[in-house]
Amino acid sequence: MSYYDFLFVIEVLVGGLLSGVMYSLVAIGFVLIYKTSGVLNFAQGSMVLFAALTFVSLVERGIPFALSLLITFAVMVALGFTIERTVLRPLVNRSPMTLFMATLGLSYIIEGAAQLIWGTQVHGLDLGIDDTPFEVGGILISSFDLLAAAIAAAMVAGLSAFFYWTRIGLAFRAVADDQFAALAVGLRLPRIWGTVWTAAGFVALVAGLLWGARLGVRFSLSLIVLKALPVLVLGGFDSILGAIVGGLIIGASEKLAEVYLGPFVGGGIEGWFAYALALVVLLVRPSGLFGQKTVERV
Amino acid sequence: MIGASLGAAAYERASEISAILAVANPVGDRRLARLSSRPDVVLALSGIGISFGGVKALSDVDLEVEVGEIRAVIGPNGAGKSSLINIISGLYHADRGRIAIGGQSFSRVPASRLARLGVARTFQNLALFGGLSVRNNIACGRVHTRRASFVEHIAGLPRARSEDAGIAEKTDQIVAFLHLESVADRLVATLPYGLQKRVELARALVAEPKLLLLDEPMAGMTATEKAEMAGFVRAARDRHGVTIILIEHDIGVVMGLSDRVAVLDYGRKIADGTPAEVRADPAVIRAYIGTAEGENGEDI
Amino acid sequence: MAVQALDAARLPVDWAKLVQKLALATALFVVAYGVVPAYASGYLVEAILLPFLALSLAAVGLNLLTGYCGQLSLGSSAFMAVGAFGAYNFNLRVEGLPLAVTMILAGISAAGFGVVFGLPSLRLRGFYLAVSTLAAQFFVQWALTKFGWFSNDNPSGVISAPHLAVAGLSLDSATGRYLLSVTTVMVLTALVWRLVNSATGRNFIAVRDNETAARVIGVPVLRTKLLAFAISSFIIGIAGVLWAFTYLRTVEPAGFNLDRSFQILFIIIIGGLASIRGAFWVRRSSLSSRSFCPGSAHSCSAACSIRAFST
Lengths: 298, 300, 311
Prior knowledge:
heterotrimer, A: mainly alpha, ABC transporter involved in vitamin B12 uptake, BtuC, two-stranded antiparallel sheet, globular, B: alpha/beta, 6-stranded mixed beta sheet, 4-stranded antiparallel beta sheet, 10 strands, about 40% helix, about 20% strand, disordered N terminus
């Protein structure tokens, strides 16, 4: 392998890792909810879409950037809170599969609502981030991707701080560890679930802005949920660390596969490659890389 | 699709074979070989040990169960009773030791072959099939005797029909034996707890096992229900000649029902003998009374 | 899956019920083979009955796997695609193959795929399995688009239904296609009905309700799961043939997308998991409700599905 080939591999790898961060961004929203309530929230993708669409529509109506951001945040918090109240609370104690299918239905409702409120046209979203690639040691790096990664890192740090150093964060971890025990010591589960859905709404907002800026705000944006699922499976549904590492692994290997494997099979493999990769990992570790092993109690 | 199910069958077969081959391991101790060749020993455990995450749940447990006896295993909470039953039924795999069932010796009992080895069990927490009627739940207990394929069942071919008829007859016998006639066609999930426990016993008995493992069959029952259940357990042994291992918290019931009692404490067997011997054993008294200071005092 | 399989736990012979059932079956036959072919308009048959029959059959197939055996699959339309493209190729490449044989071979191909993509179920549970079934969805769609061979090198991967005939009788008319469809659906549904009430069906339910207990009493769990995948995919594959040959007549791989899979899933959720009749009721009601929903029909059935849970 020549020096330039090597540089090219590195470039692909870095590009892949950075886009992997974008996957992790969506996946983290899933993990937050899964950890505390055992629900795989399929509607996370449409929440991302809803956030991006709301924000971009407000900006287009001449509302200042910061205010739009604030309003959208409020809307997302309200949305998360409402979902928790109206859909999930009545279904408490149902099987995880039932809850999953409810969120699957919910994703269509949110998309339909977004369509009704904001219309169906594609919007461009400019966050004012300069996207000229810059060069480091012969490798081109997208500055947008780098910034997105930085924002994602900041968000993870912020969430971690929240969950480690605040009272409600401590309660969150207690619930994630053992719901019944948490209930027994008097933690108010509904309040924690409300908080978690709010946090998930916030994550959806961040992901929506970054993904929207990258792909344009369109309805296919909700399909990024399909990019996040293999990441979740690979990392384990209940691990934030897993979501990050899983995102990086999938992002990097997907890009490498596209470049080096794609030409042999006619390309277009990005639709299923991540799933195949996740499946191989699962066959070795059925609960993902960082997922909690469930001990069978008989 | 037939090929694939053959593949799965081969896979199951292979895991069974490897489990049996493990027997040929020369480490197997002579005592076990001697015991398992004795026709009057249904089950022999030797040197069983298992740990969960560094915590020893069982260490160096030996146990021989003779044909036709009701053998109780008692001990305080967390003594390893359920682990022991789960190891015998192949749901847990022991880290050390061997298990001989009816003359065949294993280091890991193949759970999928348990029924064909002549072992049936009930579960501490109900493990019934909630979507099936009582009768169908019980009929499932004889699934290991079925040979007809799904095609034969759909087409209603003679083998499938005679299988169904044979199993229906056995099921009816057990339903009558355990007085379940009045609820036989109800969905099992709609029955009260005590009756569900009885259905589980029925599902185990219909398999006509040589060895029956009962994991707390009377837990959570009223005194009347307990007495009734004890009667069924004794009748099962007397009429069907089945050997029974019984895990139970209610020591009063255990002492009246069992021929011999093994006592576990902190994963070790501290006593083994007739109810009278065990009751008088100082180690047992220590284990129960000694820890009773402020703990969940279990009446002895 | 807390939903109980009431159908599988019915009482033994009850004469009044038997007579009632016979009357119902007779009425069904009269309507299916007498009234509909004679009086139904072309629009009713083409736009409502044909998709209704195909999707109902797919729902019956998925219900077997998800409702009865407890294995959630999100990739049903991939198996419809395998069935449709399989039938197209068997018909194209084997001279003079009877239609029934073509359909059965297509179903077997789908069953083969089902077993392959069902293999993870031997090790994975719950959501991990559900997500892994998405691999089938995306892989099949990709392969059918990418490899021209499957669509006889049509540039956009589109296949068209061949001439349909049984024993020399042409079934190309709307009524003919309806008769083919309704007969297939009735035969397969009857077989599934027998299956779920047999020992095999009870094994499915046992694996769903308590896998550990099922294994201990001697249910061959691995074989049962794979069998559920195989039979379910077989039926969904044939539903795909009906969808492609009798309803749309011209289909592309993209027609068998994730939305279609979810649509089938919604049908079985609203109709009640582990209920065969449910598959048909819902399909009918969601077709009739479509005209009232300005947005996508999906939001509508999604709303129904949530309502169904809350009650």
